[in-house]
Structures are given as C-alpha cells and as structure tokens.
Amino acid sequence: MKMFSMDKKDILLFLCFSVAVLTGPIILEPFGAGYPDLLQKFAIFGIFALGFNILFGLTGYLSFGHAAFLGMGSYTAVWTFKLLSMNPIPAIVFATVMGGLFAALIGFISLRRSGIYFSILTLAFAQMSYNLAYSVLTPITNGETGLQLNQADPRVLDVMFGRDYGAVLPSSDFFGLDMTGYPGFYFCGIVLIICFFIAMRIFRSPFGMMLRAIKSNQNRMNYTGFNTRPYTLAAFVISGMYAGLAGGLMAVTDPLAGAERMQWTASGEVVLMTILGGAGTLLGPVIGAGAIKYFENIFSAFNEGILMGIYDFLPETLQHIMVSVSGLFVGEGWHLTLGALFMLIVIFLPGGLMEGFNRIKTLVTNRTGGGSDGAATPAAAE
Amino acid sequence: MSKFEINRRGLLKSTAAAGAGLALPTMFTSSAWSAGYLNEPKGSTVTFGFNVPQTGAYADEGADELRAYELAVEHINGEGDGGMLNTFSSKALQGNGVNGKKVVFVTGDTQTKSDAARASAKRMIEKDGAIMITGGSSSGVAIAVQGLCQDAGVIFMAGLTHSNDTTGKDKRANGFRHFFNTEMSGAALAPVLKNNYGSDRVAYHLTADYTWGWSQEGSIKKYTEALGWKTAAAVRTPLGAGDFSQYITPVLNSGADVLVLNHYGRDMVNSLTQAVQFGLRDKQVNGKDFAIVVPLYSRLMAQGAGENVKGIFGSTNWHWSLQDEGSKAFVKSFGQKYGFPPSQAAHTCYSQAILYADACQRAGTFMPSGVGAALEGFEFDGLGNGPTEYRAADHQCFKDVLVVKGKENPSSKFDVLEVVEVTPRAQVEYPADMLGGELGPYNNGA
Amino acid sequence: MDAILLQILNGLDKGGAYALIALGLTIIFGTLGVVNFAHGALFMLGAFCAVSVKAVLSLERVVEDPNQLTAWGTPMEIRTPFVEVWFGDFGATILDYSVPVSILIAIPVMLLIGIAMERGLVRFFYKRAHADQILVTFGLAIVLQEIVKAQFGANPIPQPAPEAASGMIDFGIMVGIDAGNVVYPAWRLIYFVFSAVVIGAVFAFLQFTTFGMVVRAGMADRETVGLLGIDIDRRFTIVFGIAAIVAGLAGAMYTPILSPDYHMGMDFLVLSFVVVVVGGMGSLTGAVSAGFLLGILQSFASMNEVKDILPGIDQIIIYLIAVVILLVRPRGLMGRKGVMEH
C-alpha cells in the first residue's frame, strides 16, 4: 500500500472518473437523467462543489458566500459574449479570472476572522452583491430579468473575424461547435475532468498538506511563527476561480446571468452539496452536486398522471392511496424529499455519501476475504 | 463501481448522440435538420410542457395554473364538459386532440427563479419532447423562459406576467402573451381613480425594486399625471422586505393623499396590511380621504390580505364573477372539478393552452412558424375577456381590462373583489413600437 | 424630528423580533454548541400556532342552502363559526382575540416541539462537526416547512390583531410632542413591549434561578460543569425548549404585522444569524442589543433622505453593518473569546 501505490490508485481514480464523466449520457440514461441540460448541470455544479471543497474540505473555513463568485463568473461571461465573442474560451477565461479577483478581494477581508465570524462575513458580502445586482446595479446586471444577449451587441472579435449571426440571437459556439446540447455537455465535462485533476494535485501536494494542517489546528500553526493567511487566501482564491469558472460555463451553455445565482440559498446549496457528498473527499462533492441537481430536476417533474402510471398495477383504491402518499414527496413536494434526504444522510452516514460507498466497499472486500487494510479507514477519506 | 442497468434503446440513443456530438459537430448547426422542426410529434400524442411555480411564494398560484392546464387538456381531448371550448369563437378544435393527436403533458417547477425555470423548461424540451412551454407567475421568469424557447425553437405561451418587457423590450417571435401589462393597467385604472378621487391628488409610490415594479410605477405615474395628479415621491422597496413600516411612516406626514403600492404577491399582502395598520385607509389629508391603490390585484393574494383590501382599487386580467358566457362556462367546469373558483392565473393559463391548441389545429402543424402565423392577428371571442386580438406586431393580446375594488361585504372567502368597470380595449391600446424591442424571426429548432 | 422618532419606533419594533429570535439562537449556540438552522422554522411554527388557533376557533358549521347556487352550480354553503353558534357575541370576541389567545397555546406546544427536537435529533449532534449540524437542522427546517405548506398552502394567511388593538395610539403626546404628529399602530407598540417583557423574563430566569446559573456556567465552561456531577443534559433539553418558546412567541405575536406563510422562517434565518454574530457569540446581551441596533439602523437607512444620497443602501445596510462591526471588533459587539471561532 502506502506512498508508492498511492499514485497508482490516483491514476486509477482519475481514469475511472474521466470515463464515468464521458460516458455520463449512457450511464445516466436509465435514471432519466441522460439529457443534455441536466448533464451540463451535473458537470458545472460538480466543478463548483469541487472548488468549494478545496476551501472547506481542506482548510475547514466554511464560506457562506461562494455564490457571489459563481454569479460574478456568469455576468463576466455574458458580458464577454456581448462585447468580444461568442467563443466560450475567452468567456470562461475572463469568468475564472474575475471570480478569482473577486474572491481575492472578499477573501482578503473575510479571512481576517475565522469560524462563524468568517462565515457571516462571506455571507454578508454575497448578500450585498445579490441585493445590489438585483436592484441598483440593473444597468450592468439587468436586474431581475437577468443579463441576456442582444442582436445589437458589438461582439468586437466576431466582427473582426467576419462572423455574422444574422437576425437570430447567437448562441455560444466553440469554433463552429454549438455549445448547447451534448457538445455543451462534453465541453463542460472535459473542463470538469481538468478541474478534477487539478483538485487532485492540490490534495496531494505539500500545499494541500499545509491546508489540512491549518484545519486541524490553526493556533498551533500560528504559534510556531507560521503565517497561515497566505495559504488560506490562496485556497480561497482557487475555490473562487472554480466558482467563477462554473458560473462562466453556466453562461456558455445557456447565455443568461441572473442575480439569484448570488443569493444565500445558492451559497447554501454548494455547502449542502459538499457535505452531502462528503466534505474533504475528492469525489464526494461532485456526487453531492449530482444528487441535489437530480432531485431538483427529476423529482419535481413527477405529477399525478405519472404517479398513476407507476402504480397502475395496483387495484384502483390502493392506487389512489399510493398516489396521494407519494404525491407528498414528489412534484410540488420535492423539497420534502430533499430535506428528509439531508437528515437521513447526515444521521446515518456522517461522512456523507462517500462514507456510504466506502462502507459498501469495505463490506464487499471483507466478504471476499480480501485485504481490508486502508479501505476500512474512512478517515483517510479520499 | 456498482452495476447499472442499461436498457438497449437508451444505450443506442445516447451512444449515437455522443458519437454524433464528438464526431459530427456540423450536424448541430441549424441547417442540417431543416426539413422538420424540433420535437415534431411522430406518434399518436403531442406533449405540452407546463412550467409553473410549485415551491416558493407563488406555489399556490402555480398549483391553480396546473389545475387549469389539466382542465384545458381534458377539454381539448374531448373529456369533461368542454368548458370554454363551447363558447370560444373558433370552432377548429373538435374535442379529439390537436391535429388528430391526443394531448399529453409534462410538468415542472420554476421555483420562481430564472435558472430553475430554464432548467425545468429545458428538461421538458430535451428529455420529454415538449412541443411548447407555458406557465409561470412572474415576469423575470417569463422573459427568461421566453428567451430559452426562442433559442431552442419551441413556442412559449406566457402565463401570469404583467411587465411591459415581456412583449415589449424583451419580446421574441416564439413568445405569446394573453395576460395584460402595466401599460394597460395604468390606462385603465387612471380614469377610474380620477372619477373616484378627483384630479387634484398627490400620490406616493412604494415600488418593488425590480423590473416589474418600475414598469408598474412608470405606467401609473404617466397616466395619473396626465390627469392632473402629482407624484410626491416614488420609493423603492427591496423585494421580500417583509416589514414595510420604515417605508410607510414617511408617507404619514408627506402631504400625499394617495398611496400606490406597486407590489405583487407577498410584498403586496404585507405592505397593504401594514399600510392599513398605520391607519392610512381612514386618514384624512388636505381635507380629503386618504386612498390606497394596488395597481395589480390577484384574487389569490388578496385573500392573504383579508379585510384590508376592502374598498381598494386595482386592476385584474379576469375575475370569476364575470357574467359573460365564456367566464360562466369556465367557472362552472373548474368549480365542479375542484370545488372552488379559478384565479386569474388559472384563467390566463387555460386560455393560453386553448389558444395554442386552436392555432395548431388551424395551421395544421405544430411548427412554431406555422403556429405563430395562425396566432398573429388572430381575433377571437368567448374566452371570458370579450373580443380579443393577438396583435401581430408584438404578440400581445389586446382586450378589455377589468378595474376592481376590494368588496365590502364578501359572501365567501373567494368573493373578495368586485368589478367596478370594464375598460374597453380601445382605451388601453398603444402603438406596438412604443415599448421597443424586436420580435426577430421564428425559430423552428434544429 | 418626528420622522426620526417614527423610524426609531419602527426600528424597535423590528428589532424586537430580531432580538427574540437571536436570543434563542444564541442560547442554543452558547449552551449546546449547536448551529441551529431550524431556528427560523421554530419562529414559523410559532406563527402557525396562531394560525391554527384561529383555524380551530373558526371551525364552521356548514349548512347548505339549496335555494342559492354557487357560480359553478353547487348549493351555496352558509358558514358560521361554531364558537359563534355556541357562545354568540362572546364567541365572536374570542375569535377576535385569537392572536393573544394563541400565546397560551403556543407556550406548551413550542416547549413540546423544542423538547422533541432536542431529544429526538439535536442531542445526537452535540459532538458532531458544525457542518453536520447545519445539514441536519437545515434538512429538518425544510421538512417542517413542507409539512406546514402541505397543510396550510403557500399563500400568506391573514391574522388580524384584535379590534381593540388595531387602531393607532398617539405616541407623540406621551413624550411631549404635539398631538397627531407621532401616531403609531397600537399592535406594534404592544409587540415591542411584549418582546421587552419576554427578553426581561429570559434574563431574569437565567440570572436569578439556580437552573439559570447552571446554564450560564454551562455556557462559559461546559466541561467543568459536567465534571461537577451536574446532569447538564437534562438542563440542555429544557434550554432548547425555552429557546423554542421564545422563537415561537416571537412568531405568534408577529402574525398581525406579517401575514404568516410557510416560508417566513427562512427569511428570518439568515438575518438572525447575522444578528447573533454581530452581537458576539455566546453573549445574550450582545444578541439583544444587536437585534435592536440593526432594526433601528435598517429603519434609518430606508429614509428617503438617506436613500437619495446612497441609493440601495437600505438593501444592504444589515450586511454592511455586520462587515464593519466584525472588522472593527473581531468577536462582534460582546462576543467571548474562543466561542465558535473554529
């Protein structure tokens, strides 16, 4: 085991992850989730959660304002589309950079405090951004309606290269490859794989070790005369860039940026995704993001008619009873399922969904009589 | 890795799509599939997408919209008593579905958030093969989804959306609105206000600080000032402020004698309740009775304000107490199915579903450009609003507007509003280019 | 001047609600070390105690009148509340006073809910990470909220104040200002007084009873108190119940000001956390003063004169103040060192 084989395990994990992402449309089809928009959302929120985890999972700093960077990324990307070009590359580059800059600004101030004081500072900045974007900053953000593309946008670079979109509204395209539908998903998926790789490198690097040390005892670190702030700030900025990138990708696959992306509920969502999947694990946040988005999009879509169909095999009275009981949990009641899921997971699987997988893995390896070393220790939690 | 069951068809479909996506990018540019149109129904059914708020502050309104849609689908498919199909002036629909296909539907939750609404609409388009999207309870969502439908290439039949922008600045060829807008509210309401309160009045606006609020404030200001009113102040309030006391107390000593609440939904319930609490309804200023005006009423929401709506003027798209044949038929079939009268949101959604189905039937196709052409300039009657026209230039319905007042002696909990005046269509009409925006060409999808 | 006085009253009123919610939240933080994201839901449940009381009081006898028909053709129903059928005018009076009456119901109900929550769920999370506490209590809040929605719908439900308290009181005269300049709704003054009384009662309870002493000691140093052989767990259950009562009362009495709906708890949740943190973790006085401070500043920021200079300031004032205070005073107004800093 140990250090030597670690790399091998990582390579295996990375390869498995890449294959899983690229074959997502096939794997998820039987679950009703194999359509482009949801796949894109999985990838985008996977990136968002992955970045959030670099801050929260490694350093333990719980930011409640990461949605601000997501929103910043989206606005930047749409403005890039409007001003420069419909090509997604400049859009996501600028989105990442702006996400990072915004994070550097907020992080610089917020990281002067720790614990809940830090959480509230980040929350306050994000809420201010949201409220202003919704109302006073409407000339820049187009307020409630959200920033949209316009036929009359300048698109300087496109004009320079003689790209003309005619009378229709343009959509983002990667050198002719339209960024909606499956190509959009593969674009996001490849970015997700790259992001996963970077996150993995960070987790395994001395920098990552340093961040974990900060989590376990910052005071001790400070007493040794070690200044932890640059490290936490770096983690904060990196996770802000991930968020900005995710926001940019949202705009790439769907060129619209709304203020509600910055609201505290959106910040809370990524916190929940990370904890649900397993904070501090590499894969957990991506899985958590997928789970929440799946519930939001699939469970909310069940209506009485569909339920009637599902319970068709039952006698009629029983069918009606089952439909009204299940109806509480799906369709307009999908929030209830989500809330209950949060509770069940955290009660029975303290380490999030990843702990569940690890337990199953341990169970399987124990059954088969294989060496249970390493796999049984969730503390390692990779 | 755990085992996943893969069904063969799904596997083939996705592999094909994945392969095509990776290898043949040009397939996805719009010209390749120009023969047909997006989600063209091939089987014996056609799928409508009902996208309504099921969670959040407008969940009850969304639930009512969904009830209306289910009723509309029943009627289109020839079940139930036929509702307004019997009174509708166009007789194209035969009660056997649309273009020979039975109508089925899928539903989704907008959460009254643009992102969620678009994600939900995309699911219906990409996964469920919906041929059109309809519903919603706010203008921000309507504009966002309308933009999406334009890009994707399906028709959007807007639900409850009152902002001018939906068929003004942000109008799209694939989008159609039956509901009225702030411009019409202002034009209809101002003369009634003048008749009741005189032309020498000073108004104080409290305005929800987002696009619809500003739109509403602008229209009311424009039409009341034209009649001689003055505007003391127009104060923006944050969305969902909850307690509006800090905005209401400055009204007390401002010298204004009318308070205009450009709020909707929960904001309206709270600001109105609190304004009444601060004694504004019984106040005397400049020797006149103080008045409160709520430009856009929703009966569902007015119930939340309880007694406080009594005697307060506003406008509404439709009300169940109307006595024309269409309204009576609709209220009867809705009430018999659900046990209570429909809201204006339910009415506009029902009408939109019927209008869309009828246009498809007349056009003989579901292709957006064909359906759009059938809707453009379409004149009809019998859907509860009197003679109505879908104006070709901006895809906005023009019809009479109802001015209503909170009822003094309600006979039931649904009976909170009474119709004061039906402002004729001619009075609320405005030139199509006044609000700006471009329809652009129809998009039939890839 | 009058305008400023009115805004102070508005601020005190709002601050009363903020302070009551923050008080319970900070007690739970301080004693149990639990980040309770379901605290807003407790406020909401309190409000729905009032709604339920009114719903029960206005249970109606339904008589169908075959001579009258509804618009959809079924017989018209004549509805009279049973209390009026049985008690006549006195019944109508009870119905009118349903909000104050609901307080009597809310106290035992909220106590039970609080105890059930603590025993059934929260106690398993004392030693867990804050993140886990957040997830589980947030999940609980959503579940409670959805149950209320399934029962009462999503629309706000009107809860008028009693007839006698729905008028205006000339507050100006009391402080020596000309009549008619500073008139204020009676119910809002009642709410402020009520919140002051509840806050006072909680403080007195913690200050002057042995029980309160143990709780305060527990807030300061839980381990030592545990070592002294005091059954701190039992007390913590009751502490949670008290916090639930305070939040519930705040909610029930607030209903005439804000028509309750199932989502109102979430709207107050973030705000109450800001209040607690601005006040300083582990400080009751801090939470209360921060509640009133933020309430008043929010009112001032909403004045037209202020908004003319700084557009949109009223939208962000709470958060701006929070940032400024936390930067100037690292642990909020009166926070104790080491509490929730990690």
From TrEMBL, chain B:
Chain ranges of the Leucine-binding protein domain: 45-407
Coiled coil start-end: none
Ranges that cross the membrane: none
Highest taxon listed in the record's lineage: Bacteria
Matches recorded under InterPro entries: BCAA_transport (IPR051010), Leu-bd (IPR028081), Peripla_BP_I (IPR028082), TAT_signal (IPR006311), TAT_signal_bac_arc (IPR019546)
Keywords: Amino-acid transport, Signal, Transport
GO biological process terms held by the UniProt record: amino acid transport
Keyword Cell inner membrane in annotation: no
PANTHER family according to UniProt: LEUCINE-SPECIFIC-BINDING PROTEIN, PERIPLASMIC BINDING PROTEIN OF ABC TRANSPORTER FOR NATURAL AMINO ACIDS
Family the UniProt entry places it in: Belongs to the leucine-binding protein family.
Entry protein name: ABC transporter substrate-binding protein
Organism: Hwanghaeella grinnelliae
Automatic annotation (TrEMBL), chain C:
Domain of life (superkingdom): Bacteria
InterPro entries noted in UniProt: ABC_transp_permease (IPR001851), BCAA_transport_permease (IPR052157)
GO biological process, one term: amino acid transport
Keyword Glycoprotein belongs to the record: no
Membrane topology: Multi-pass membrane protein
Transmembrane segments: 15-35, 42-59, 97-117, 189-215, 236-257, 269-297, 309-328
Compartments in which it is found: Cell membrane
Cross-referenced CDD domains: TM_PBP1_LivH_like
Keywords in alphabetical order: Amino-acid transport, Cell membrane, Membrane, Transmembrane, Transmembrane helix, Transport
The keyword Transmembrane helix belongs to this UniProt entry's keyword annotation: yes
GO cellular component: plasma membrane
Predominant subcellular localization, coarse grouping: membrane
Protein name as annotated: Branched-chain amino acid ABC transporter permease
Organism: Hwanghaeella grinnelliae
